[in-house]
What we know:
By secondary structure, this protein is of the alpha/beta class.
Amino acid sequence: MKTQNSTGMITGILGVVSLIPSGCSHEKKVPVPNIILIYADDLGYGDVSCYGANAVSTPNIDLLAFRGLRFTNAYCTSATSTPSRYSLLTGEYAWRKSGTGVARGNASAIIDPGRTTMASVLRNAGYTTGAVGKWHLGLGPASGADWNGDITNGPLDIGFSYNYILPATGDRVPCVYVENRRVVGLEESDPIEVNYDEKIPGMPTGKDNPELLKMVPSHGHDMTIVNGISRIGWMSGGKNALWVDENIADTLTGKAVSFIEKNKDNPFFLYFATHDIHVPRVPHPRFAGKSGMGPRGDAILEFDWSVGEIMKTVDRLNLTENTIIIVTSDNGPVVDDGYRDQAVELLGNHKPAGPLRGGKYSAFDGGTRVIFIASWKGKIQPGRTNELFSQVDLLASFADLTGQKVPETECRDSHSNLNALLGKGTSTRDWIVEHAVNGRLSLIKNNWKYIEPGPGDRLYAHVNIESGNDTLPQLYNLKEDIGEKTNLAKDNPLIVKELTELINNIRNN
C-alpha cells in the first residue's frame, strides 16, 4: 500500500493549542487539536437519518454531518465488536492475533500492557487520554481480573490516563462499572464472583426463573439475572455496584462530559464507546416508546442524544475550533441479537443496513461498512466524500496529525490517511480488508469486492442475517451493485485471481 506523509501540510492548518510532547522537553512546540472518537455499538449504515433513514430521526448526528464530512465509503475492520475494537486501538488486524474473537465478560486482557496503541501515541504527544464506555477487550492477566481488588492489564496499561468502563457488554456479566482499577461502588463485605464455566449456586437465572424477568431472551442470554434481565455468564455479589440498564447512557455520557470539562485547558483524547445500541436495549424512560420502533429504535434516539451532549459540551466550552469529533460504529446492525424486544416486529420499512446486504457477523458490506462523520470547525470543510477509509488507519493518521512516529512492527496495518480524514485530498488506501465472524476475509479494490470461499453456511439463523459464506468465490461490482446481489466471479476470472493473490499476500505479510 502506498502511504503519504502530510504532516508538513497539516502543521499550517492546525489549531492554536500548543504543547511540548512528553519526554521531549527541548522539542519544538507542536499545535494539536483535541480528539473525540464516539464509537457506537451495532449501529447500522442505514440507522441514522443523514445516511437515509426515514423511520427514525437523529438530529444531533445530522447536525454533526452538516458541520463536517460524511464518509460513504468508510469501514471498520471486523463484523463483530472485540476484533473491531482491537484493530481500531492497536493498528493491527485482529485476525493476525489469536484470541481476539468476541470476548467473554471475564476474558483476560487481549491487548498486551505496554504495547503501542492509539492512546499511547497520543499520550506521548502530550494528550490526557480517556476511555469511557464499553471496553470488551478483556481485563487482567491470564489468571483473570481481580474484581475485588486492583484490576490490572486494562486501559491504564496501554496508554489511557483515565477510564470509566463496562468490562465487556451489557448482556455479559459482570454488570458493574470499572473506574481506573476498581469496581465502582463495591463493598468489601459483598465480594463479586464471576464464572463462565459453571453456574454459581443460589443465583437466579433466566432459564430457571423466567418469572423474575422483565425482558425475555430469544436465544441464549438465560444465565444470571441482573436488573430483571438474564445475561451471558454467571455472577454473584457486588449488589451495590450493579448497574441499572436504564441509566447506562446517562452515566457514561455524564462521565464523558466530565472528562472534557476537566481537561478543557490542555489537549485531550476521549474514546467514548457507547453501549447503545447493543442488547439488552433498555433505554431511559425519556426515550422509551418515542421512536415507534420499540427499544432498538429508542436506543438509536438515546445514542443520538449522547452525541448531542458531547457536541453541546464542546460548544459551551468554546472548544469547537480546536476539536475533532468523529462518530462511527464498531460493526453493522443486528435486529434480534438475543432478547425479545419487538425489534423485529416493529421494524416496519426501516432498513438498518440501508442499501447494503448482510449485517453484523456477515462478510457482506452490511457487516463492516459503517457511518463515519468527521467534524472540525474551520479545518474540515463540510460535505460528503466517497474516499476509501478504514478505522485501522486512525492510529497512524492521529500520529501523523500530532507529529508522532508509529512502530511499524506493532501497528503494521495502520497507514496515515490524514488527507482523506480532513477532506484535503484523495485516500492513500488502495484496498479495504473485511473480516467476518467465521474468519473469512473479503477485499475491496477499485470498486470490486471479493469474498473468499467459505464453508457454505449462508445464514446465521439465530440472528437471521446472511453470512456471506459460499463454497465458491464471490465477486461484486460495488459501484453498480452496492447490495452485492450479482456474483460476477465466473465472468471475471482474472480479477478473482488478482484479488485472491492480493488477499493472500496481505494475510501472509
